[in-house]
Amino acid sequence: MRFIKLGMISVIALLVVATALGLLFPSKVLVSRAVNIKSAKAPIYTLVTDLRNWKNWVEGMQDSSVKLFSATEAQMGKTRLMVTAKTDSTLKINWQLANGIVQQSTIRLIADSSQQITVVQWQFVQYLRWYPWERFGSMMNDKIIGPLMEKNLSNLKQKIESTQTAPND
User: Fold this and answer.
1) Which residues contact 137 (CB under 8 A, 6 or more apart)?
2) Which of 19, 94, 95, 119 has its CA at 20 to 30 Å from residue 76's CA atom?
3) Topology given in CATH for the domain delimited by 26-163
4) Contact at 8 Å (CB) between 71 and 50?
5) pTM recorded for the entire structure
6) How many Å separate Cα 56 from the centre of its chain?
7) In this predicted model, what pLDDT tens digit does every residue of 39-67 receive, in sequence order?
8) Distance, CA of 130 to CA of 26 (rounded, Å)
């Protein structure tokens, strides 16, 4: 009986310590990547703001399991994408995962004054609850999501720049 009591107290103490350590981590996780594309904003805007065009630059969107419901709503595996806001330079998308977690994605298009280079910035924000496993698990978000974002932005850059015509000399 004494060992059971000691075991229960130890487990409770361990959970309290893990929760306390987890609360030291931020409740908001932000993963952001950007790329400079040698192009005006308009052709990039067309590819970025319509989910039906994502098959041209986002890996996984060509898969047969992807269901495109409209320009603003899609199902990518077990993840539901819904465009929540769209302006002339910003697209906001909610990515709802199968477990109910929602990550907010923002894609910004920032053109330079000459309209020859556009910066495409893509970021994911996830708000975490107080659960220690969520807080500790969020430490890997940058390592998991970051390379995928970089690859997709690279695909976008390659797609746009390959369709640009060279100026006549």
Assistant:
1) none
2) 119
3) Alpha-D-Glucose-1,6-Bisphosphate; Chain A, domain 4 (3.30.530)
4) yes
5) 0.79
6) 17
7) 989 899 999 999 999 999 999 888 888 99
8) 10
